[in-house]
Write a structure and sequence with these properties.
- The chain is 82% helix and 0% strand.
- It has eleven helices and no strands.
- Helix 4 packs across helix 11 and helix 8 packs across helix 9.
Length: 274
């Protein structure tokens, strides 16, 4: 009788709903703590000079005054050819990266290449490509080939290998295995599996990836010239070194315009083809 009363009393106790368990709350608190600590530590080591912050609006206004009126006559002289070279660098670099990244992406996909050693080597190459900034790649190729568009093109290509190869490998790993197993059971070769099994599934994602990378490369190639890797960045660097701020304004407008145009082109292509 006593046990029955105790059990009925336990059943009537009100239940308290909690959104997170104790472990989840401790984990969230730890994450927030480390984020705040990282921000505080970063602010302590940046060495911000308050006088420069106070003077910044005045300096910015003075800079805009020097840029006006804009020297539009400078565009056909030097900016147009440099802008076209920038587009060529981004386009050719993207094409080269596709031919280099796709085989590495295939090697990194565990379902397509069931070899742990090859997977590890491919992933190491992809990580190495992504971990080095395009400006650093440009400096390396400038040291080898000298300043110019060739160094910029190779810098764009080698920087894009990690991006394209990684996402291509992940798309292959996420492909449905049904059609692949059917092709394998029929005795299809690896190339047949890739053409008729994997490619129809990853085609939309792959084409979107290429368009996105080309858009990114347009923006990155615009600044590679600051280190001597060709394109409109070299024209910008020259104008800034000579304090020709009215010409700097033309170059900045041209860079902004080409970024907007490429964004519109990519959007239209994706809407029509994908």
């Amino acid at each position: 009788m006593f046990e029955t009363e105790v059990s009925s009393h336990k059943q009537t106790l009100p239940k308290h709903w909690q959104r997170y368990t104790l472990d989840q709350r401790l984990l969230r608190f730890s994450i927030y703590f480390f984020i705040v600590a990282a921000i505080v530590q970063s602010l302590r080591n940046i060495n911000i000079i308050p006088e420069f912050l106070i003077d910044a609006p005045e300096q910015m206004a003075d800079l805009f005054n020097r840029m006006w009126p804009v020297d539009w006559s400078y565009y056909p002289q030097s900016v147009n050819s440099a802008l076209i070279e920038t587009i060529h660098i981004a386009t050719l670099g993207t094409i080269i990266s596709i031919f280099l990244a796709v085989p590495i992406g295939l090697l990194s996909a565990r379902n397509f290449t069931p070899n742990r050693f090859l997977n590890l080597i491919a992933r190491l190459i992809l990580v190495s490509s992504r971990s080095v900034n395009s400006l650093v790649w440009a400096l390396l190729f400038i040291a080898i080939f000298g300043p110019g568009a060739l160094a910029g093109t190779l810098a764009i290509a080698f920087r894009s290998i990690g991006f394209i190869g990684k996402l291509t490998g992940e798309a292959i790993e996420e492909a449905h295995a049904g059609s692949i197993e059917a092709l394998t059971a029929a005795g299809a070769s690896k190339s047949a599996q890739l053409n008729y099994g994997y490619w129809p599934q990853i085609k939309p994602a792959f084409l979107s990836l290429i368009l996105l990378r080309w858009d990114i490369n347009i923006r990155e190639s615009a600044v590679l010239g600051l280190v001597g890797a060709g394109g409109i960045g070299m024209t910008l660097d020259t104008a800034m070194n000579l304090f020709q701020w009215d010409r700097v304004a033309v170059i900045l407008v041209a860079i902004f315009a080409i970024v907007i145009v490429t964004e519109v082109i990519i959007t239209q292509v994706r809407n029509r083809l994908l």
